[in-house]
Amino acid sequence: MIKQRKSKKSYFNLDLALFHLYQQNSFNGTDLPAKTLCLTFDDGPGSHTLAIARFLFEHHIQATFFVVGKYAFYHPEILKELKEMGHLIGNHTYEHPDLPYYVSVNGDIIDQVLRTDAVIKPFVDSDRVYFRAPYGKWSAEVAQELNQSILTASHIGPVYWEIAGIDCYYWQNNWPVKDAADRYLSDIEHNEQRGIVVFHDEIADMDVVKPHNKTLDLLKILIPQLLGQGYEFVRLDEIVPIKTASLQEPKFTLRIGKEKYVCLNNKTDLFANGKPGNPHNLFTLKDLGYGKFAFRAANNFYLSSAENEIKAKHFEINETEKFDIIPVDKNSIMLRCYDGSYLTLEKGKLTRNAPFMRQAAIFSYANHNFTINNNISRKQKLLLFKKQLLFIKSKLQQKLNF
Ligand SMILES: [Zn+2]
């Protein structure tokens, strides 16, 4: 077993938990009304996924499947059917690493997220992708790293839980399905009868446990009982803070050289002369699929390459408002227009006068979605402390959650 790196910036630290919850919006189901549950399934897709999904569909329950990219890659047909049944598909990384440790040994976590996106995006309806960290393990360093890439800006997460995924622990020990169902029922009861529930349609790390997965049998006991007790089930995107976050578009700045921000001047023109902190430096990103993106400027119009000079003057997105993002390193990019030319700078103005990549401007990207809220009330502090205790409790139970 790999020893967890010890550092002063441990995620057990309360200050970082504040950072974690405010800076990165760790989502949970504590706002759900009583007798309301949101079902989530981790680590698939696998041989049990569709049977589970169909069982839920027959009971009019729409769940979220946080899939592991390396499994999803081989099973697009499962993802397709999940989508057709109205279930959501979320990103659970490509190889299911322990992200805080992985980032500490220079593991490429952006790559873990993007490779999974490449597999799941055709089956994700929204332009936002829900993300859950393997084992729920998270740290300020992980958040900071993922915030550096424009290509992960459309993610919403990490999505945490109230009722932990202890099912696999029962299958590992060959304990009865009935006991697992009782444990879920009692955990739901102890969580004020509401919250996000984790199950495992597959088990990512331990092939030896996979054949013993009885989560479908567990659901066949649990779901009729919960329905009989009057429980209702909501999809992840119906949870209010998640819904609200989905409506907020990712905001960012593009910088060229030192402190020269791409800035909207006059009405529709773009210059690279913005000073830091100018609201006219801010852009929002729209992921159009097929690797195309649109950028909306502070005047609410989209950047357009219809003319030689790039202007923010179109309200609708047509071919000339679509751009390719070409990453250079984790936080810098080049932008290519519909006609194959690249964005560049001419006399401080943004133009598309770069037919070859070697002439393209390299823009530094900075995420502006997450602002630290230092002025939190005593009540909020207490709530955060309570959440932190639950967080620590879940860490202590980590061995139970795969
Ligand atoms: Zn997992």
**What percent of residues are in strands?**
15-25%
Strand order of the largest sheet: 8-11-12-15-16-19
Helix/strand structural class = alpha/beta
Q: How far apart lie the N and C ends?
A: 14 Å
Give your account of this protein's structure:
It is a single chain. The protein is α/β, with parallel strands linked by helices. The protein has 2 domains: 14-246 and 377-400, Glycoside hydrolase/deacetylase (TIM Barrel, Alpha-Beta Barrel), CATH 3.20.20.370; 250-367, Trefoil (Acidic Fibroblast Growth Factor, subunit A) (Trefoil), CATH 2.80.10.50. 30% of the residues lie in helices and 23% in strands. The protein has 12 helices and 19 strands. The chain has helices at residues 14-23, 49-58, 69-72, 76-84, 99-104, 109-120, 140-146, 167-172, 177-190, 215-228, 240-247, 378-396, and strands at residues 36-42, 64-67, 88-91, 129-130, 155-156, 194-200, 232-233, 251-255, 261-265, 269-274, 283-289, 292-296, 302-304, 311-314, 323-329, 332-336, 342-346, 349-354, 363-367. A 6-stranded antiparallel β-barrel has the order 8-11-12-15-16-19. Strands 1, 2, 3, 6 and 7 form a 5-stranded parallel β-sheet that branches. A two-stranded parallel sheet has the order 4-5. The protein is elongated. The chain starts with 13 loop residues before the first helix and ends in a 6-residue tail after the last helix. The structure holds zinc ion.
